Fold:
Amino acid sequence: MKSKLSNTFSLLRLSIIAVLAVLCSSCDKTETTDSTGFILHYLGITDIGPSMSYTLKAPTYKGSAPYDFSITNVTFNDETYNNEDNFVINAETGEITIQNTETMSAGLYNISVGCYSNGSFYNFKNAVQVNMLLAVPEGVTVEPAEVLVNQDEENWIEASAQVITEKDKHVSIVGYAIAQDESKPYLAYFNISSNGKITINPDTKDKLIAGEHYTLSLRLTTLAGNHMYADAVTFKVVAKPRNLFYIEQEFMPDLFEIEQQGESVIPTIEGSKENLKFTIKSVTPETSAFNIDTTTGQISIPEGHNLTATETPYVFDITVENAYGSTDFKAVYSVKIVTFIEPIVPEKFHYTPINSFYLPGSELTNYAKDNTFIGGAATFEFDSSNSDEIKALIEKEIITINSGDGSISITKDHTLSIGEHNIQVKVSNRKNKEGVVKPLTITVYKNPNSMDDTHFVSWGTNVETPYEIGVKQNFTPKKESTSLYRNIIRFPNRGNITSELPILDYNLPEGTNIKYDIVERFPNKFDPKYTKIDPSTGTITTGGANGFGAYDGGILVIAVTVSGNNAPAVTKNIPIFFTTPKNYNKDNRGMMLIDPCVVRVNPRANAIIRKSINCKVVEYGNGTVKSEKDISNLILDFRNGFSYLNLDNNSNHQSGTLSNESQPTELLYQVWDNCKTGIDKGNSSPMSWYGPVDGKQDPIPGKEDKAAYIDATTREIVINPNKWIGADKKYANGAVIAQIRYNLDGQKTELDDVKDTGGKSGSVHPVIIWFDENFE
Structure:
């Protein structure tokens, strides 16, 4: 479609000139349904440097229009920041200006914003984040500063640039990263290596568009801290002309009237715009009556032309050339001369309102205008008067229009807020060049089948059951006392796994049909021959020890589908977490028990997350704890067994177990690249406190550059900010399983030795870190 192609170019242009990163904020959390009635979405800021000033554009919103904006609080590294000269907000629009940054200290600034909507005041805590970095050290350059990427060349994907330093004249750079800026989705199209080489990401190479410039800023790490290298390199993508487009193929030929001036639309064209020139190569049937604007490609015929009405269209071959070559486009446009083009009759242009559209789940496919429409050779487009909410969905191509017939489509992953919306459509033709604007009115309701965080299905927990000395352990899960333990189940030594897990509790929408299905067995430890689910009752058959072959834990993901209520069906994926600590009776090393064994966090947190864990080591056998061991000399660490399960639909964050064979599409590979230690995919250091088994590093320096680790001094699990984020600048929504290894003798050199003979290290205990953007 013309409109879809135009929207794509428009979105990319907006992305390229945008300066700041997108972060969505709401009163409580990221939501898919408008439960608050009003939600504000700001462009946020991540990495910027001193002497950089920006105006952050007005926020988008769901609900009634906001007004009377104010900055309610600013914090710097979690402490109140009182300098009003650096952050100024426009009370009418909500635009925020960041200025006078020359003397601002490096660190994280959080800006809270307040506003009124429909008479009520809302305060959005930490609506915008500013990560102020140090100035780039002198003597650092990128060569070349502009990289020419010619897509017509065979090896164009190999184009690259290199960070260069003046040796012996400044501090060493120990880490390289592309500065975060979520308003530039194209950042995911590029990679930077551990030695500062900037390359094109082969997985996203097809998204690079000829004619566009992609400018990258860099974040460089030295022993003195993080530094900002603004606009360090530009990849200039070029190619000879491609994909010339005038109007929808199914609505050709275009119509011109006899003796009247006629003009085509101005076409869209991919490829470099340098020295762009359009010419008519040929017209069939042959005629010289038509002209073409060599700069824009618009085809026209003058008033008083001598062409007569005919059923045979004039078909055009167009040649387009630019600085990098030329391309012939055959039969790309056609025109038929007619006696009369009907003018648009405004009162005959309507869309029948849609009075029941649901969030989530509803969709439109080519929803047509009313058949009362009168007007010849009409062109339809979205009008500029649409609300910011509608414009945002148009830019993302969630809402699209067919420019030839005005039919509108909305994908089912739309986020239209509850209430009435008017999608404004403008139609024009040669008799009505100013156009007529009419709305498609859609009333959106909350889907009665939808499930939010209050809806759940519980197969219970056994983690709350105390391990009492001398008491036979009952491993059958029971209804949990708190949601923190819901669907968290621990089976020591695998052999104790319960054969059946029935649903013990649930809260789902009323008056519905419910279906259950296992959609993920991770990490391939559940044998599908044994591990099954009853689609009607939800009872899980595990197969006992035969069906589960892991000492490193596992996750079942159950798809719960709710249907009925005369609304679209909705599916919610519910994970069940299993941990299986290993017991070693040899040398009386015992079994470790950790609580919590599943740690749930929000990956968007902009501060260090610290989660305390309680651990004990017991002598265990035949389902009974015989004694509890002295842990005064206990040391423990994340050492290996790192696996990640993606729990959303982001195809760029693939699941997988970390190894030297891990692929760039796997999220753990990308997280390891976010850390300045252990870029080698087989290295555990991005999640380990202690160094290699030779003990030469104790502990590894640079804790702020790790993804997560166990603090040996406090026995806390620590998750660092902005590490669990993919190359596409999207945060992790999934779970990482990591093996904890330990020993009771305080000997770090034995942490990696868990053999039945010789070693003194204790057993392994899997801990799962669950990254959930909706968790607060």
About this structure: Residues 2-17 form the longest helix (16 residues). The first strand starts at residue 22 and ends at 24.
